[in-house]
Each structure stands twice: as structure tokens, then as C-alpha cells.
Amino acid sequence: MPEQHGLTPTMTANEVNDLLKQVYPQLNEQYDFYRVTEVFPGGCTVRLNADERHLRPGGTVSGPSLFTLADIGGYVCVLSHAGPDALSVTTNLNISFMRKAEAGPIDGHCRILKLGKSLMVFDIDIVAGPDRQTVAHATGTYSIPPKRQTTR
Amino acid sequence: MPEQHGLTPTMTANEVNDLLKQVYPQLNEQYDFYRVTEVFPGGCTVRLNADERHLRPGGTVSGPSLFTLADIGGYVCVLSHAGPDALSVTTNLNISFMRKAEAGPIDGHCRILKLGKSLMVFDIDIVAGPDRQTVAHATGTYSIPPKRQTTR
Amino acid sequence: MPEQHGLTPTMTANEVNDLLKQVYPQLNEQYDFYRVTEVFPGGCTVRLNADERHLRPGGTVSGPSLFTLADIGGYVCVLSHAGPDALSVTTNLNISFMRKAEAGPIDGHCRILKLGKSLMVFDIDIVAGPDRQTVAHATGTYSIPPKRQTTR
Amino acid sequence: MPEQHGLTPTMTANEVNDLLKQVYPQLNEQYDFYRVTEVFPGGCTVRLNADERHLRPGGTVSGPSLFTLADIGGYVCVLSHAGPDALSVTTNLNISFMRKAEAGPIDGHCRILKLGKSLMVFDIDIVAGPDRQTVAHATGTYSIPPKRQTTR
């Protein structure tokens, strides 16, 4: 599968989880729903442990819950590969929903398509259910702020 | 602004708010964050009263919160114009984030671009701040389930 | 309709047409299919005079032809509002096709949603037919290269 | 890479090339620019042999040329996996451009994310250059018309 070569993460999954807890407490509030499960060169895996709170009419996991997983997947790619600047922001995200997902563990397999100086493009396959079928697929762009001067 | 002509809503904003509370309690849980403020022929206006819970690093309203507003805008268009079948689902949503939004009232101006038998396409301008600038813009598609037989 | 205020074009429609002919001869080759018809503060109108060459199976105007119109609409917005640097490039374009369009004049009404230093976001309503219904809608982002030094 | 299992193509690459020539002569007019190079279960590979005609300002392959390749990739997936009904149409296509591509062979690796009765969702990685880097990535949806009655 084509992707950008030569990328090296500078943070582990646990380090990113700790950073998220610190800079983005709203993400999980009192529960650990969204977690980084793996960071690897050129991508990451993120998980949503979906329960009843994430459902929509029809009893399936809601679009906003899956969007959040996709968005977090891109955020983790930026944090782990371009440095832990929490101020990177999404500029565009396109998500297609293909199948219904029931409550349970939902995994987002995320890869970096391009890491430039000011933009990162990624895509993510979101899989769920006993046979881990793709339930959604998203492509997005993060804007990376200019490196800030280190001052004393 | 071009749009589909000849559309007639069959529900008011209040009726849709009541329906949402009933079929989608997860949306607002114990608070009234997301509200329909207007339903008109060919579109609707939805509002997010964003507070600290909706912020992300940098103190601005998070992407998932704005995505939710966009998704709800499309859902309200379907419910109010194609009949109150809660099982319509998003098949695709593309959102661009243009400016940062601070906590406060955020309005989504939503119009139906096409209402067909099985698909509805909409777009939404999301505005915020004292001068109501566009902070995000989204386009999406809802799949409308076949009309169910009315049985006694 | 919300949009970015305070924008001022620096080129007219005719000036942009001349520029396109010079820097992008492939666009129209020997025919004048794609034209700028209007440049106004915050947007532009572009036209495709679709003939048989632009049709796809079913006898309707092809997706790539409408995509080209959308892409040109954004390009004209950049050229006319951010200066005639031909090297601005599309980074993302999302297009939805709503109705079939027959051969004939097809107009793209394009507005700038955000003009920043390095990115421009736009959307475009593409209308066709005797009642000028929306046949497609697109949202896109252009990357604007840094201003080049003027040297003698 | 997750995808839909159990798919079986019913046409070969050559059969699809012949069908395209017959139903969509505008695609290649007098030249063979766009070709199907492979059809396999769950996807296909398509190629654009880009020459000077496909370039844009800056001397790189234009967005519309890459969009066309993406759109054709999805069309070939539908034709080869859902039956040769030429009237399937794109309802949405989102494309991100990551790197510049020079003239030469450009390959689109296309996979079916979902093949349903009335919709097919696909994505495509477009690679080019001596090291076949990803230059663009797209996700799209095709609408499949209802099976037509075979009448004698």
C-alpha cells in the first residue's frame, strides 16, 4: 500500500495518550473511550470503546463518534510524527459511512499520506464487528503551526 | 442562491426538537446543546450553544462538535422534509474548517441541494462570533430508507 | 449568505481569461469551452459551454468536465483575489453530483469562504438547464505559494 | 488492508477497455490515455499515460486529469463487479492532491470499500514518478441503477 516512506515517530502510544489527557481533557472526560493503541512509522491505530452513549437512532454507533475517532487518528499522527504541538488543527475531513457498527471496540487504522512542513494528509480505515469489516473511511488534512521559537 | 425549489417542510422546529429528544437522547443527554431554531422550505437553521465541554486544545470549539452540528443540520432537513423516519443515515460528510470559533452560540444555516427518493444532499454554513463569520462549511448526503408500509 | 467580507479583486474577468490562455493553454486548446464570465468582490462566475465532447454514457455532461469547471472556479478566485501567481495548486476538492446536465451553457457560481495567507477555501454551485437547477456542488482548497521576491 | 471480502469480478481488464471504448468514446478520443491495466477481486488498477496535454501551470499533471483517473477507477470497479451497466454515475468524489506528478505513466490502485445494491464506495491511491509515491488519494461513491428487466 503506497504511503510516505522514511517517517519516524517521536512519541509512543502511551506518551500520546498522556499528552491527550493533559491538553484535551474534553475528549474522554471521566471515561477512557478514545485511546491510541499503536504508533508505528507512518501511521497509528486508535480505538473507540463504543458503548450506549455513542449510539444514534437504530442502535448503531453515531456518525459524530466515528468522525471523532477519525479526527483523533489524524491528530495522533501529527503529534507523534511532527512533534507534540497540540495546536495543529484539522482543515478538512471527508468521511464515508459504509456499514452500521454496533457498540464494542472500533479500530481506526490510520496512515500518513503526506507529511509536509505545514500540512499533513492522512487516511483512516475504521473497522468494527466480529469480522472487522470497514464501517467508515475518512481522509483529512491537518495544518501544522510553524515551529515556535524556544525562548527562556 | 440556487437550491431545490418546491420543497415543503412537514414538521416545525419544535416538533423536530421533540422528535430528537425522543429518538436520539444521546445527542443532548442532560443538556440542551444542539437545537433546531428554524425550519423553512428547503432548509433549516440549527444551533450549538458551545461551552467549555466543546473546546479542544487552543480553547476553540472542536472539530467533532462542529461536525455534529453539520450532521444534525442534515438530519433535521431529512426529518422535516422527507418525513420523521429516524432511520435515515449519513453516507458521506465533507467538512472544511476555516476559522476558530470560541464558546458561545454557533449557527448552522442548512439548505437542501437535492431531495430525491433515496438520497438527500445538503450543505451548511456554520457561523460564529460577534460578526457571524463562516467558521466551517460542510456538504453531506443522507440515505433515506424506503417508505415503510403502514400496517395496523 | 455568509462569506468573507472586505475582499477586493485585483483583476477583471477578461484579464483572467487572458492570463489563463497564456499560462494554461491546455485548458481550452483550440476551443473556448471554459470562460470566466464575472469577477466580483469575494467570488466569480465561470462557464462551461458543454458540447458533445463533454458527455459521458447516458448523454449527460461528465463528472470530469464539471470537476474541471469547479477547479477553474477556485483558480480564478485565487488569481483574481490573491494575485496572478499561476502556481497556486488545488490541495483538496470535494464534489457532489446531484442532477444530470445536458450539453449547453453550465455556470459555476463561486464564492471565497476564506482567503488566508497560504490557503484559500471556496465553494461553487454549478447550475444548468432551462431552470438553472443546481447539478453539482463542490468545496475546495487552494494552496497559495509564498509571495516571490520582485527582483530586477 | 481492510476491504470488502467475497467480491468476484465478472469482466477482465480487456473487456472493460473494450466496453469503455464503445460506451464512452469521449474518454480517449483519438488517443489511448486512460487504460484499465488490471481487474482483481475487490478492485482494479487504472493507468493514465500523461503527456503534455495533461499538464497545468508549473508543468505538472493537472487536477482534472487526476480526477478523471480516479473517476474512471471507480467506474471500472462498478462495471467489472456489478455488471456492465454503463449508466452508473458518480454521486460524490473527494480528492486530495499531495505531490506534483510529471508527465509519464500514472497508476491508480483502486479498491472497493463497499458494494451494495444501489451504491458502491471506493478509494484510490494514485502513484507516479520513479519511486511511485502517492501523488493523490480519492474516495468516491457510485450510484448503481436498478437492474433492468431483460425483455425479449
TrEMBL record, chains A, B, C, D:
Pfam family, one: 4HBT
GO molecular function annotations of the record: fatty acyl-CoA hydrolase activity
Signal peptide feature range: none
InterPro entries in alphabetical order: ACOT13, HotDog_dom_sf, PAAI_dom, Thioestr_dom
Domain Thioesterase as annotated: residue spans: 58-133
Gene3D superfamilies xrefs: Hotdog Thioesterase
Record's keyword annotation contains Hydrolase: yes
CDD domains reported in the protein's UniProt record: PaaI_thioesterase
Keywords: Hydrolase
Similarity remark: Belongs to the thioesterase PaaI family.
Protein name listed in UniProt: Thioesterase
Source species of the chain: Aminobacter aminovorans
